[in-house]
Please model this.
Amino acid sequence: MYDLTEQATFKYDFKRYMFEKKHIMLLYDALEDYRYVSSRFIADGLQTNDCCIMATDEYSHDQVLKDLRQLGINHEKHLEDGSLILINVQEHYSAGKGFDPEETLTGWQEFTTQSINKGYDNVRAVGEATFAIGGEGLDKKLIYYENIINEKLFPHYPFMSLCVYNKNSYSNDVLKAAIQSHPMMVYGTEVYKHNIYFVPPGIYFGESEDKSEIDRLLTNVKTNNSLVQHIVKHEEKISTIFNNANDAFFIHSPILEECGFIEVNDVACEMLGYSRSELLQMKVTDISANTDKELEIQFEAFANRKQYLFETEVISKQGHFIPVEISSSTFKLDNKTLVFSAARDLSAQKKAEVDYKTAINATDDGIWDYNLHTGEFKYSERWAEMLGYKQREVPAFGCFFDNNIHPADREKFDTAFKDCLSGKEDKYELEIRLKTKDGSYKWIYTRGRIIEWDKSGQAVRILGAHTDITTRVSMEQAMVQTEKMMSIGGLAAGMAHEINNPLAGILGHAQNLKKRLFGTMPANLKCAEECDVSLDKIQNYLTGRDIPKMLQGIQESGNRAAKIVSNMLSFSRKSDKQYGCYNLVDLLDNTLDLASNDYNLEKHYDFRKIKIIRDYETDIPDIYCDGNEIQQVFLNLLKNGAEAMSGKKYANESPQFTCRAKKDSEAVVIEIEDNGPGMDDETRARIFEPFYTTKEVGKGTGLGLSVSYFIITSHHNGIIEVESTPGEWTRFTTRIPLERAVR
Model:
């Protein structure tokens, strides 16, 4: 039994069996059911190149056209071209005088032949034989007609008929005979595809009426018995499948307030620890671990979807929470909508997933799996965490890290990846830089291998792993930089010693020249008198020729060179004369106060207008260090940052320093970060080299950061590093070992 109001029922079941059975009885109580079924029967025919004839009576001419119009049928077109023919039953059969079964049969045969010749696929006829109601002998003619067309019309002609009977207008004998003459029935809007009471024409037109009646009864008995046996076997088979399945089965109402279990299988009882009788007294809400809101959403899905798949948890009799995957679908039983749910226990799968994640996380590697055909990208939690993301923040499609490779590493990665995909190499592995969520880059050791190919040999899936090697690379770079700086420092110190002696001579002689030419010492006056010259006139001449300015220039240049030599010599000297116990936070704050007084029109910046953000941890221990030298380092970093920020144009922000102080298990860490123009990799790699500067000639010696580097690394056994993103920020990090902490 199927409800024709379900669109799928009419489209698939009714239409399919309509073409097979051809002769259909529509039994109705309400005119609305007559109109609903017959209008759709005719509309479907007009949409599929059939010629349709509708006999109107109680279902009037105007009502037919109205219903067809609501179904999207252009009835005027079909009436005009003859594909739709409407006749009035009473007028056509004129109180029954015009009805003759044999003539009517012949008429349908001829009409069908003509229609097929005109290009139609089938002929469809709909109507109710109201002319036979109350007419003497007409009911017998009608039943004879219903049976003779079973024998001589439907098997041989593309003809279908929907014969309409009002249940309240015909006698029981007529209705019984009519039911026996139709292989398919519709009652109201419910479809009965197999009419077990149908009497085939071969039996109906048997040798004698008594024998035919007995044969019909025997046939019905056999048919019913066969159907019952089939149903019993079918039920036994269904019961066996139902109770021996691997999943837990539940049947319940789709209405949350009425969600009691109607049936459950043995697996459901075993999973939850209840007996069948106990579960049949319970509701879905009794075993669900979901909130009321989540249950409302699930039951709304039952009402709006044919099928619904979701994961949840159910609660066993012992109070255990069991993870399950539930596949639910709605179906109809005795015209009542129910929900069939199959629950699969995911406990073992979830445990395996946890074990797998534990094993993966234990390696500290990030695992990824990329499907080249679908674009699906899977990854472990550690993989996302490595780049500063949470799992939900990384797209599930597209090779995410492919778009975040450092431009300098792009070519070597593409080459290695393509060689792997083409089969030239069975795997790839290399070290690259990947952009993190905050815009900085991390060094990653990446490797991958093809694990799946299609039939043509093309790569389908590639599995890989990432290892964060930023610390290792930074240490290697620091070691190289330290060795390089030590070498340069030794060279610089040696050069400084060599330069120092002649420089001292230059400055000494310049001083002596100034004294002997422009001083009024007795020796000067005596020598001038002995030479018979005027000392005043000699001095006037020298002044006129700008000799004093020249001597002053020699002295200033010499002093500047002497300062450079002094800085160079500091590379190789250590002194404990000013060492003491200092708190680096206090030193940094003192330096910020000192720097705030730095305003120079030539430098085009005012330190007081730079925003300072302090982010200090508490309980930072004192460190045994040279306070003056540490402040010199901080001041160099702050002045360099201020000068750099003065050259950047800000749109939605202003110059800003972020100063951080923290400690880890090994060191006290000070970070000074600016939001200036940043620096590229080449500049970052050379920033601590002596005499390296990005400033114009004459505006910097290139020794400030070099001196800072040696103060931290050589004098305090610490580390100073720089990180930067061009156009965005630069961060200098100094680390002073805790072994120098004052305890």
